[in-house]
């Protein structure tokens, strides 16, 4: 009888656990793995369950995963959209089902479907990289590695463009889409070098794309002759900067993004109001800053 009573109690406890869902554009990026880890820590500390999904950069798959999470009864959905515009039908379904959505790392086109957006100041990340370029180079030909479907990438590249435009000594001569993926950025950078061998500066939307550029530069025996910039603050990227292979990265804090997003979710579940946007600062990391110490691992 005691065993049965304990079993019944366990079932009731499981039924009382809230379910929250998270859908990222991809988990083939350590940045999102860290965000997910931080959200999961907060959720499990509340005794609840986080159901995470990876659509592998497919908008259609991400839409289906959101529908599935709604059907599973999640009470909040964290979303990092594959495409900041085409994700809207799924957001409409969550809105209609009264499931609040928290956007992480990037905004969506129609923010009325989102309760809160937690992200870095992506425009400023691009500005910081461009300011360093201008301050440390007499001029040069620039290549861009982009991901136009992600609004965070659009903002970073726009911040870079707007700032670099103030100095006519610099010219953006080429650009390619790479989805922010190392394995796509590498051949993209190879093609850029073939078209424009005089490129001396690369601005990549994120650190995986910057690492792809570095791999292509290494194959072309151009490491050290081209200055490469990224955004994220990936630990491996910091090592590349320390070695002198990469110039700088605008560091984000995936730990703070994840923690803040989870905290806002529980405020929503408690019936409290939350800010529409939480924007976190970025910091440009150069070799000098990294040599000063205290920047190991993820922020």
From TrEMBL:
Residues 24-272 form the Periplasmic binding protein domain. One of its GO terms (molecular function) is carbohydrate binding. Transmembrane segments: none annotated. One of its GO terms (cellular component) is cell envelope. It is found in: Cell envelope. InterPro entries: Peripla_BP_I (IPR028082), SBP_2_dom (IPR025997). Keywords: Signal. PANTHER family: D-ALLOSE-BINDING PERIPLASMIC PROTEIN-RELATED. Belongs to the bacterial solute-binding protein 2 family. This is Sugar ABC transporter substrate-binding protein. It comes from Selenomonas ruminis.
């Amino acid at each position: 009888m005691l065993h049965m009573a304990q079993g019944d109690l366990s079932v009731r406890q499981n039924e009382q656990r809230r379910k929250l869902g998270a859908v990222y554009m991809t988990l083939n990026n350590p940045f999102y793995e860290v965000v997910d880890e931080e959200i999961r820590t907060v959720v499990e500390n509340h005794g609840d369950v986080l159901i995470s999904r990876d659509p592998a950069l497919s908008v259609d798959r991400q839409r289906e995963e959101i529908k599935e999470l709604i059907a599973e009864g999640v009470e909040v959905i964290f979303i990092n959209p594959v495409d900041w515009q085409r994700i809207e039908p799924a957001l409409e379904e969550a809105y209609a089902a009264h499931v609040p959505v928290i956007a992480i790392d990037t905004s969506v086109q129609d923010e009325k479907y989102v309760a809160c957006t937690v992200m870095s100041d992506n425009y400023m990340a691009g500005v910081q990289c461009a300011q360093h370029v201008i301050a440390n180079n007499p001029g040069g030909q620039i290549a861009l590695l982009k991901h136009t479907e992600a609004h965070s990438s659009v903002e970073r590249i726009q911040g870079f463009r707007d700032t670099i435009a103030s100095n006519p000594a610099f010219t953006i001569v080429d650009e390619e889409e790479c989805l922010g993926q190392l394995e796509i950025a590498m051949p993209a950078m190879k093609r850029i070098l073939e078209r424009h061998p005089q490129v001396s500066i690369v601005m990549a939307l994120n650190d995986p794309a910057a690492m792809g550029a570095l791999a292509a530069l290494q194959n072309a025996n151009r490491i050290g002759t081209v200055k490469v910039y990224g955004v994220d603050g990936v630990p491996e990227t910091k090592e590349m900067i320390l070695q002198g292979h990469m110039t700088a990265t605008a560091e984000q804090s995936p730990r703070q993004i994840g923690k803040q997003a989870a905290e806002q979710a529980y405020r929503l579940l408690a019936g409290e109001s939350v800010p529409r946007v939480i924007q976190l600062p970025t910091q440009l990391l150069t070799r000098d800053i990294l040599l000063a110490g205290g920047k190991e691992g993820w922020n």
